[in-house]
Amino acid sequence: MSNNYSIETKCIQSGWQPQNGEPRVLPIYQSTTYKYETSDEMGKLFDLEKEGYFYTRLQNPTNDMVAAKICELEGGVAAMLTSSGQAANYYAVFNICEVGDHVVLSSTVYGGTFNLLTVTMKKMGIECTIVDPDADEETINKAFQENTKCVVAESIANPALVVLDFEKFVKVAHAHGVPLIVDNTFATPINCRPFEYGVDIVTHSTTKYMDGHAMSVGGAIVDSGNFDWARYGSKFHGLTTPDESYHGVTYTEKFGNKAYITKATVQLMRDLGSIPSPMNSFLLNIGLETLHLRVPRHCENALKVAEWLENNDKVAWVNYPGLKSNKYYERAKKYMPNGTCGVISFGLKGGRDVSVAFMDNLKLAAIVTHVADARTCVLHPASHTHRQMNDEQLIEAGVQPDLIRFSVGIENADDIIADIEQALTHI
Ligand code: PLP
Q1: Longest dimension (CA), the chain
Q2: Ligand 1 binding pocket includes 177 (Cβ within 6 Å)
Q3: How far apart are CA 360 and CA 355, in angstroms?
Q4: Which of 14, 143, 150, 226 is most exposed by smallest CB count within 10 Å?
Q5: What is the mean pLDDT of the chain?
Q6: pTM for this model (two decimals)
Q7: Is residue 397 a contact partner of residue 107, using CB atoms and an 8 Å limit?
Q8: Each residue of 184-194: pLDDT tens digit?
Q9: By mean pLDDT, which of 93-102, 149-158, 165-174, 352-361 is the weakest?
Q10: Could you tell me the CA-to-CA distances from 11 to 67, 144, 292, 294, 357 in Å, in that order?
Q11: Could you say which DSSP state residue 316 is in?
């Protein structure tokens, strides 16, 4: 589709482009496999000599159409869907890292990403150095090693709500000849397009705002196409030297700026298999069609709720980058001028137990392990998503023990505030 269309039009129209007489709505290709006239034709697909579908574990047309839409929303050159945001972040890193390699990781990333890298990928021999995203350039530079292969951060950290200093992170990553991978789940391409600031790879948990209705778990990886893998010789040898499992194909030579996503699809998806179901991708596509309407409403409601909380006596602190008093207000204005996200965090006077008691008294806002849903929801990270972390790690991740993560939905803001008000009367 034309790249000149605005993001609103892309939300609706990108991806599936029906030809004459074809269904107007993206079809669900609920098929594991694809038929060919000759054995030779199918053989060519296995050698990557010909493009085409042969088995849904690698690629499926419904999934690919939705990936194409997300690719256009982010302004990338290639994208793929995964069965979860976890799989997206795993593949994004594992596509260029192997045993003996090293990653520089922002300390405030989502707890699941933190575990993935520091626990599970560590077992695969991939080490991490954790950096405070607000540390100065010199300090972050010291985290790099000879074997560093990428930097991983979030545009808006979940749940610390730290807004990434893109300029600083792009500069340090590129100075060390490695790509910057940014998880853009919270900001979404409606509010922030990291490629415009020099980021190389973007990931998403599409489970959040993109789906928007808490219907399906999913993930996406998008490549800007800008990182020059070949420039660094054997550093990214998985991309720049022959892959014997495809009869010696060299991804950078054969697929140019689509090398990274092609490798992740034909090698990682082939071998690890975390493809979304076509049905889930169909649902994700419906979510994407209203992303441009929902995200501004989430932000508008979140700002109203955050301002109300800031003026309430029982509230100890409020963290929302859209608040003028917030540490990240100016940075958010620079990188995401139309808004940040619908998630706010706050603590109540009296600490952790009071915060938990308040949550138990909410009626409209539900306690769920989720954020970025059309319905307002709430969670206590220290008891839930981050419960595996000790106090020191919690603080490092920007998570106070009393922190309430409040995901403001797209209901009427006054009703959400009334629910908070009544719950506060019980503590
Ligand atoms: N990245 C971020 C920023 C998240 O918030 C989450 C989940 O909350 C994930 C990744 C993991 O995504 P999923 O739950 O879809 O596997």
Answers
A1: 74
A2: no
A3: 9
A4: 226
A5: 96
A6: 0.97
A7: yes
A8: 999 999 999 99
A9: 352-361
A10: 12, 38, 7, 11, 40
A11: E
